[in-house]
Amino acid sequence: MARFAAVLASLRRFHGPALLRNLARIGRRSPRVAVATLAFSVILFGAIPTAQAFGLAVDDVPVEGLNGQRAGWVGSWMTAVDRAGRSEPAASGFTDQTLRQVVDLSLGGDRIRVRLSNVFGDRDLRIGAATVALRRGAAGAGTAGQPLRLTFHGATATTIPVGAEALSDPVALPVPDGSHLVISLYLPVPTGRATWHRHGWATSYRAAGDASADARSGRFTAIGPSFYFLAGVDVLTRSAGAVVAFGDSITEGCCEAGSIDADASYPDRLAARLRDRFPDRPAVLNAGISGNALLSDGAGLSALTRFDRDVLGQTGVRTVIILEGINDIIHSRGAVRPEQLIRAQAELVRRARARGLRVVGATLTPFGGSGGFTAAGEQDRRTVNRWIRSSGVFDAVIDFDRLLRDPNDPARLRAAFDPGDHLHPTAAGYAAMAAALDLPIMIKDPEPDDHPERNHHPDLAVLVAVQLFLREEERPTMFGDHWIAALAVQLPA
Prior knowledge:
The protein is α+β, with helices and mostly antiparallel strands.
């Protein structure tokens, strides 16, 4: 009961006393329905109980808006983690080896902390040692000076349970904007399947034994452009918060070979533009996964499933750019209808707004001539794009379709932006995408009055969802007559 009371106290911040009164009334009549109501309020509004509600200490300094900022923690780099599948070496994992991985920090700061992930592991993950350092030179695994030890609650080693993440203690390491941070992890015992990001577009390395403190690169060999057990890096700095670019391979930065270690994705280019333009610059976080879909798991969990972790869970996030849906069209071959994609995007917008984020919608880019192209799929893409442009659901819209398409054949990419697969832009195309984004939108604080639809009635919205969830025989008895009347108006026919 104490924990339930804490959850209610947390929900009060999001939904007000009216919901709490009705939740308590429902709970007296049916605990199952009360739990369902609570669950749907979390799903619809992101009303996750605060750490303070459970008596936990929180030492983070909040990131403020553009005006009157002070130093605070903000995400500078992230990757969207996934299951290992059958791909090596992620499928077998690592034993008595050191992984050395290089990440491109979108934003610098005076201190850093590293987030490690065992979310998709099949056993507890033992970290024997972990270090950080700036990279020496423009490439390779060497470090500029002796790497600094990371600690976890004061200890140099830690164990991360299955399904969990671990955040390191802050370490005093001044890092410039746009610098490359080298993170080394010594893995003394078998890791099992690795939580990873397959297409990281940055070369990773490994060495036998514990080489985490070695500044030289000679012990390390390259193992491909993937990330293992890394989820993010936060920096302590003055900033306008973080922008999360959420999407598929076109956000990730696929697919030219020359893009490896080149920081050529559109989020990379956007970060550079923002740093040059604004003194209190926002970070830009790349949450793209090649092959990702809005509705179905496959290449990563579906966008609907991973949105809370990969967007809402990022430190200091203020804005999200959503570019998702083309893989649903390509791979479903008509089984997924545009109306389903529209509803899914609207759901992501609702979740983001419940956390006070500004949401930028991006139109789906051309895929004519690619292996998955069909005339029907093209019509579905155009239907979704019309909704993105005209619905008014988003705070702003970036028309990547219009930017990248061939004016003489709008179903296809411009020749200058087509690397030959007729789906992914070239490096020049990614640069054009970053150049087309309206920079002030990226740093502007959300304004509740911008969208009257945000001021919905939370009790009704949650109970509509619960009503859809309940068994038919429960519906007439669980709510008072005035709720039934309201629901009759709102529920779909």
